[in-house]
Amino acid sequence: MGIAVGQQQQHQQSLSSVGIVDSVASTSNVNDSIPQQAPTPPAPSVKRANTNSARNIVKFKKARIGMVNTPGFIELDSALDRTVVWYYRGNTENCESYQVFLESIKLELIEKINYCVRINPIKYNLKLESVYAHRELPAENRAFKTVSREAYIHSDVRAMVDEDFAALMSEEDRYIKKGSGFTLSSIDGLLLGIYEHTPLGGSSYIPLPENIMRKKAVINPMNIDDDCFKWAILARHVPVGHHNRVGQNYYNEEHRYDFSELSSPTPISEIHIFERRNKGVSVNVYGLKPGKGGKVGKGEKDEKVGKESVVYPIRVVENEKAEHFDLLVIEGSERLHYTYISNFSRLVRSQKTSHESRLFICKRCFTSFDEQVKKNKLRGNEALQQHMRLCGLNKPILPVMPEEGEVLGFNGWANMQRHPFAIYADFEALLEKQTERVGASTDGIHAHHPISYGYFVKAAADVPVALMEKYDIPQTPVIYRGSESRDEVAKHFIASVTALAIRLGNLLKATNVPISMGVEELRAHNAKSVCDMCNLGFTETRWKVADHCHLSGRLRHTLCAPCNLKLTTPKFVPCFLHNLSKYDAHFIVTELGYDKKSITVIPNTEENYISFSKRVMPDFSVRFLDSCRFMASSLAELAGNLLTRPGDFEKFRETAKVFQPT
């Protein structure tokens, strides 16, 4: 709440001339200038007073008492465009004790503070003025003060006033105990100082980015709580010119909608509750993508604004209802802030075109249609309606085209490298008849109980056999069969596979065989001038590196240094099961929680998982994958594809090591 230097000096001169002690310091922020004790109040009839003079203070006090001759808190004066206001409640009832006087004005004080906080958050303080007499000395003017306190719409003002009165009486008691010989002669009144307060934090409010603010298409209510969703909805009904700050103007509109059952702050996932409780209401939500130059939002170090923040859809309803709201959500470091989009076309059109012609924009994908006449094509709103019949079937997206001359390239080279180990597993289950009711209208006829499993560890061709033997890695299929006394087959599988994964993790972590190149390999490596991965030439910053297998020492690639750094030791071992998602996962998932190590799941539905991982070491896990997701056929059909003519059994390299054709 800043003011210019010239204005500030002018204000200070005017305040000093009416008898206000330097309560407004030489600063541009009213909140910083609020005194911890109440200022000496103004006396309008006194000019050019020396506020440090006791004689003038008495004169101001008499003038003030003379102005207030009726009950109630009377406004004395204000400053800085009414951001500072003084009220005075005189002892018009001539109460003789503090307790009686304070109790008689308590409700008036509470009502006055509540009225002020409904307009804006405030700071306030109290100054209790009185006269003390002495048998031998002249009478003395005394004032007991409270420190300034913050008050908000949700504050318990009654409790705060009780605490303030107790503080005043405590200060008066300390004065009496000094033994000065002065006794209370009369109570003059109570001075109330009100200072407009803008909290520095503690709410969900985030200012709009500059480029969004300039469009004048968004209303951003300045709230001091976490109910920004409610204020954004109500902003539509607040009169123009009064919607920037949440106060009585917003409270008057709360009756329009039912906001019960919503959390504060309200996550996007709860907006459907608001729509359900308010018939005929629909809500779209849009976000801001950081533009070049910074993050979205401003006001804090970690929330600076990009110069070209881009709007994109987050939540778009299929059918807009009679009362439809478009909200823009601004994301801060640890919070979200909702604002109301008053003009959607004005907000988005600059992302689509620099022309000033009218546009019809799809709120789901931001495709735009103008009214220019086109041969054999619809235009304007007709084209938009036709487009929405197809677009409504898709999720909200923001198509972003590359800049002119920009080239997109693949850089995920590390994900293309073969894993040195893979586990292939399968379960066999027994179907047991049952008559258990499953659901309201479904009867279970069979229960699937795993009776055996098998797995095989496939190692890369260059992994030394001695290394596998050292870490007890099985080189032949492992078969386990359950029985009546060994019916926990799935549990045994998890224990066996996790123990195997731990051994594989230790092998990968501890093994680093030095590179060993033959003459031909060395010659080929020296002759290469480009990287085997990115195909870029070697330079001083992209120097040539010989990448080798850490398990065997064999040369793998000739790479540039950046690509070589991307090839790290695997942090997991894959375990493939065919049709895992729809079958085997039901046996495995329930057994993964045998300890407190983390489990990571990529779900498709509540009962169907794309993959899931179990951490077995601090930096190593076993990842269960469904081979059917990239070989979408049965095992019988996949095997049949290899047996196209006699002798094709040799294509089953691993199977042929265990089984022979008959």
From TrEMBL:
Domain of life: Eukaryota
Matches recorded under InterPro entries: Endonuclease_7, Endonuclease_7_sf, His-Me_finger_sf, RNaseH-like_sf
One Pfam family linked to the record: Endonuclease_7
SUPFAM superfamilies, alphabetized: His-Me finger endonucleases, Ribonuclease H-like
Signal sequence, renumbered to the chain: none
Segments of this protein annotated with the region Disordered: 29-51
PANTHER family for this protein: PROTEIN CBG23764 (PTHR31511), RHO TERMINATION FACTOR N-TERMINAL DOMAIN-CONTAINING PROTEIN (PTHR31511:SF12)
Designated name of the protein: Uncharacterized protein
Species whose genome carries this gene: Aphis craccivora
